């Protein structure tokens, strides 16, 4: 089992290092940028190249696999599922957000034939960002809650805009990736709410993740080569979370100004979110993050290998001890 050591202080000034960090441009990213604004990365001799990934967690995993980024902050279920399926190119380091994620189930505003999630058992073509993403995995969880094994049809839409267009039966424009019409999709509630308010889409249901919602993961290559830099990044994020918790009004202003949310929605979201304020200081909660998530994924049919195989993969690629 690998271990990321704590940075060792030295009297020699260390040259600035660069980490490539992929993130989803939603309100959850706010502490990452507070850490940058307050100079916490720089104090740890770090420069962060942030890579914006609106497509979701499936795309984050692809970037890690291809060594295009060193670290990624994404949805717990996507990373646990991919590791459990045998991806040995990524390592889950720690929880970033402890509170569960509220997924809204949405369809087109004029889709009168769909008024609730039970209707999806009849229509049931689900829009997803990509195979392996959180929006894909949560479709299995939703199907399980509705009483059947899985949805059988998916429309891969790449990003949130295409998902909204897909349920509204819009044709892709010249700048959009190709996608098919879908009946519903799932996305984080507060990110979706603006489009409920505008009438572009309508909500037909909601579902919480039965696990803490966001994690920090690294490529195996970065874990091997950039251990001290990763530790310093984690320390800086901790400071960014502390700043967020102590400056909620500033967080609301930042989110409303930079991340396409209303101030009202941003403030309501801050009442629901709980960041992990001990990233790297306390061992990852194995039962909540790994056991619980894996059990739900197995029940939902996402994981189909034997328990021994799955557990071995997770044991090797999910970080157990303090960072």
Tell me the number of strands. 10
**Biggest sheet details:** 5 strands, mixed
Could you say which structural class the secondary elements and strand pairing correspond to? Answer: alpha/beta
Let me know the average pLDDT.
91
> Can you tell me the residue ranges where pLDDT is under 50 for at least 5 consecutive residues?
1-12
Categorize the overall geometry.
globular
Terminal Cα span: 12 Å
Strand content: 15-25%
* Strands side by side in the biggest sheet: 2-1-3-10-4
The radius of gyration is: 20 Å
SSE order in H/E notation? EHHEHEHEEEHEHEHEEHHHHHH
Give the helix level as a range of percent: 40-55%
Tally of alpha and pi helices: 13
SSE layout and pairing:
Blueprint: E1 17-23, H1 30-37, H2 40-43, E2 46-52, H3 57-65, E3 71-75, H4 76-84, E4 90-97, E5 102-108, E6 125-128, H5 134-146, E7 153-156, H6 160-167, E8 184-188, H7 189-197, E9 201-208, E10 214-219, H8 220-225, H9 227-246, H10 248-258, H11 263-270, H12 286-299, H13 307-317
Parallel strand pairs: 1-2, 1-3, 6-7, 6-8
Antiparallel strand pairs: 3-10, 4-10, 5-8, 5-9
Helix pairs in contact: 1-9, 4-12, 10-11
GO cellular component, one term: periplasmic space
Domain Ca3427-like PBP: 103-207
Family: Belongs to the bacterial solute-binding protein SsuA/TauA family.
In short:
This protein has 13 helices and ten strands.
Descriptive account of the structure:
This protein is α/β, with parallel strands linked by helices and 323 residues long. The two termini are 12 Å apart. Helix 1 crosses helix 9.
């Amino acid at each position: 089992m690998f271990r990321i050591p704590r940075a060792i202080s030295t009297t020699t000034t260390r040259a600035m290092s660069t980490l490539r960090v992929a993130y989803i441009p939603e309100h959850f990213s706010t502490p990452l940028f507070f850490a940058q604004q307050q100079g916490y990365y720089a104090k740890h001799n770090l420069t962060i190249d942030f890579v914006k990934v609106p497509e979701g967690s499936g795309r984050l995993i692809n970037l890690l696999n291809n060594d295009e980024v060193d670290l990624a902050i994404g949805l717990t279920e996507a990373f646990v599922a991919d590791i459990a399926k045998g991806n040995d190119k990524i390592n889950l380091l720690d929880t970033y957000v402890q509170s569960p994620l509220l997924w809204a189930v949405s369809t087109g505003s004029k889709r009168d034939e769909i008024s609730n999630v039970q209707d999806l058992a009849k229509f049931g073509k689900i829009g997803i960002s990509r195979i392996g993403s959180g929006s894909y995995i949560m479709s299995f969880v939703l199907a399980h809650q509705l009483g059947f094994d899985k949805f059988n049809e998916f429309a891969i839409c790449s990003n949130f805009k295409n998902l909204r267009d897909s349920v509204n039966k819009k044709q892709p424009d010249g700048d959009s990736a190709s996608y098919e019409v879908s009946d519903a999709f799932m996305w984080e509630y507060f990110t979706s709410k603006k489009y409920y308010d505008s009438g572009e889409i309508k909500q037909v249901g909601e579902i919480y993740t039965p696990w803490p919602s966001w994690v920090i993961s690294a490529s195996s290559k970065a874990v091997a080569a950039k251990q001290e830099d990763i530790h310093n990044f984690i320390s800086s994020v901790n400071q960014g979370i502390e700043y967020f918790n102590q400056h909620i009004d500033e967080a609301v202003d930042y989110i409303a100004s930079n991340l396409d949310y209303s101030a009202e929605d941003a403030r309501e979201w801050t009442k629901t979110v709980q960041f992990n304020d001990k990233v790297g200081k306390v061992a990852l909660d194995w039962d909540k993050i790994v056991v619980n998530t894996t059990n739900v994924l197995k029940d939902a049919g996402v994981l189909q290998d034997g328990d021994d195989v799955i557990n071995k993969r997770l044991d090797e690629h999910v970080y157990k001890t303090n960072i």
